[in-house]
Design goal:
The protein is of the alpha/beta class and 562 residues long. 45% of the residues lie in helices and 17% in strands. The protein folds into 5 domains: 4-138, Rossmann fold; 157-301, Hect, E3 ligase catalytic domain fold; 316-368, no CATH class; 370-395 and 494-556, no CATH class; 402-489. The strands form 6 sheets. A 5-stranded mixed sheet has the order 2-1-3-4-5, with helices on both faces. The longest helix has 51 residues, at 439-489. It is extended.
Length: 562
């Protein structure tokens, strides 16, 4: 027997839902058996954590469980074990259970399940963890596969697999039926593409100028046929009476546990559907031949891969409609057609009606000139002594979370009060006399009161989680802001050493928007103003970007509001 000073320190964790109170798993029953286990093994209990009336399907709403995990991470009591009555009391969600166990073991703490005889520090316990992990993975994968098999079978039968009906159709009792209001536009699109050798941009302009509008529906409010929508229509075999399944499949992201993404596939199911066709199969196949030929031609004329990352794409705003302006590439060629050079410019994304919008601003702003002007304005701003002093003061300032701390303290008090009410009601239920003629009515009244208390507990626990999340976000944001401020102070020293992606990331963190003049000024400037995401000074300041005394740009230094 070890002496008192050498006792192994442990935490006790108990959890019970309302339904479990009558099955011998009450909180007191769990504690009694675990304390007896500790006494027998000469363990010292240095902390008890209790979640009452809370489901084990997730750890998110279990406040005491999360507090215990925080104490383990800070090595508060230097414990060796966490004791639970059964593994199901620790958690019913396999992923949460295994993740929590891994975190505990990272800090040298293991799990003992008294009733199950499971000890994660032993080989048998480690094996059980591995088995649980494998079972969880298999169950999730089986569910996904079974769901896909059901959809594949439905597709093989020529039935629509759910979701919004493609434009030109409507859903009637889950089946595709031609929408006679929308179908004429589909026939026109295929006719122009196949019989009149018209590209999608030309088709979009034709439909717009001839008053053929897209009827707004739940999955698309725009009345213009954008090039993206036209491309989807021209490659969808549903219009020739067929059902395709598996063109885009959900696949697990390599190296992750639960992350999936959509991947395009060429080997997909294509079968005759039970719905009527809008265009003939011959017309649809001709459209695919044209699409493939156009794709090959595009590859020939665009052999130079453009992976340029543009500094201000989306950040610079159109002076007419306010939409983002995005970079486009223009290639100059010699008279013999050979390559000459590329240059880039910013243009309003709404300037082309074939993209589903209209904007009258047609100017194209040279990317190199505007980027240089923005960087010069930022550089001159941070070189200002007042700005530098302001930035340093911001870095040294402390974040104030006192209001949230007070809110958490008040919510904790409310939670303790509700837990006390719950315990009183549970005791009253246990003390009811079954021989009392009003036993059933009194029991029902007490249970109704208990349910209301549990609802209140759930509400308070949700507010506590929300407040804690706000506090973590504020502290995390403060750290991020400090890093950005430090980067701004030393901008001139490291910006030239950044690659294109790093420069773009820096600008995205710093700049909210860039405004330009509708016309280039007499001094050759496009830049009108810069709005920063973070305050750089107490008020706006004027920055001269030319060689003379003229002020060309107002730099907005106050933090942008959402």
């Amino acid at each position: 027997m070890t002496n008192k000073q050498e006792k192994i320190k442990v935490y006790l964790y108990t959890r019970v839902s309302t339904a479990m109170q009558v099955d011998g798993y009450s909180l007191e029953a769990q504690k009694a058996k675990m304390k007896a286990f500790c006494e027998f093994n000469n363990y010292e209990i240095v902390g008890e954590y209790e979640d009452a009336g809370i489901s084990g399907k997730s750890i998110e709403n279990r406040i005491k469980f999360n507090r215990m995990m925080d104490d383990i991470k800070t090595m508060k009591n230097d414990v060796s074990y966490v004791l639970v009555f059964k593994l199901s009391r620790f958690g019913r969600n396999a992923a949460d259970t295994l993740n929590s166990l891994q975190v505990m073991q990272d800090f040298g703490v293991n799990l003992i399940c008294v009733e199950d005889g499971l000890d994660s520090s032993k080989d048998s316990g480690k094996l059980m963890i591995s088995v649980l992990s494998a079972v969880a993975e298999i169950e999730r994968e089986n569910i996904r596969v079974q769901t896909m098999e059901g959809r594949m079978q439905k597709a093989r039968e020529g039935k629509w697999n759910g979701g919004f009906a493609p434009y030109g159709y409507k859903l009637v009792d889950g089946a595709l039926v031609i929408n006679e209001e929308e179908a004429p536009a589909i026939r026109t699109i295929y006719d122009l593409y196949v019989n009149h050798n018209m590209g999608v941009a030309g088709i979009a302009r034709y439909l717009d100028t001839h008053g053929i509008s897209k009827i707004p529906r739940q999955n698309g409010k725009s009345t213009l046929f954008s090039t993206a929508v036209l491309k989807q229509i021209l490659r969808n075999p549903v219009y020739c009476g067929k059902i395709a399944y598996g063109r885009r499949r959900l696949e697990k992201v390599h190296g992750t546990r639960n992350d999936y993404h959509l991947v395009n596939h060429d080997d997909y199911i294509l079968v005759p559907g039970i719905h009527d066709e809008i265009v003939t199969e011959e017309i649809w196949e001709q459209a695919q031949i044209i699409r493939q030929a156009n794709g090959e031609r595009y590859k020939r004329y665009n052999r130079v891969e453009d992976e340029t990352i543009h500094l201000l794409s989306g950040i610079v705003k159109c002076p007419v409609c306010g939409a983002g302006m995005y970079a486009s590439k223009c290639t100059k060629r010699k008279s013999d057609g050979s390559f000459y050079k590329h240059f880039y410019y910013y243009g309003c994304k709404h300037r082309r009606s074939d993209r589903g919008h209209k904007c009258d601003y047609k100017k194209q702003i040279n990317e190199e000139i505007l980027d240089a002007a923005v960087m010069e304005a930022i550089s001159k701003t941070v070189q200002n002594k007042k700005c530098a002093d302001f930035l340093r003061s911001k870095i040294n300032s402390k974040v104030d979370v006192s209001d949230l701390d007070a809110e958490l303290e008040a919510l904790g008090k409310q939670l303790r009060q509700q837990n006390s009410r719950r315990d009183i009601i549970l005791a009253d239920i246990d003390n009811l006399d079954v021989d009392d003629k009003h036993y059933s009515r009194r029991k029902t009244d007490l249970e109704n009161s208990l349910y209301k208390v549990y609802d209140k507990i759930d509400e308070i626990e949700g507010l506590i989680i929300e407040s804690r999340a706000k506090k973590r976000t504020i502290i995390s944001d403060k750290m991020s802001v400090d890093n950005i401020y430090k980067s701004i102070i030393y901008l001139d020293k490291f910006f030239d050493k950044m690659n294109q992606q790093e420069r773009r990331d820096f600008i995205e963190h710093l700049v909210s928007e860039v405004q330009v003049f509708p016309e280039r000024t007499a001094l050759g400037q496009w830049l009108k103003s810069i709005k920063f995401k973070l305050p750089l000074l107490e008020k706006d300041m004027e920055i001269s970007l030319d060689k003379h005394n003229h002020v060309e740009t107002v730099v907005l230094l106050t933090k942008t509001t959402a």
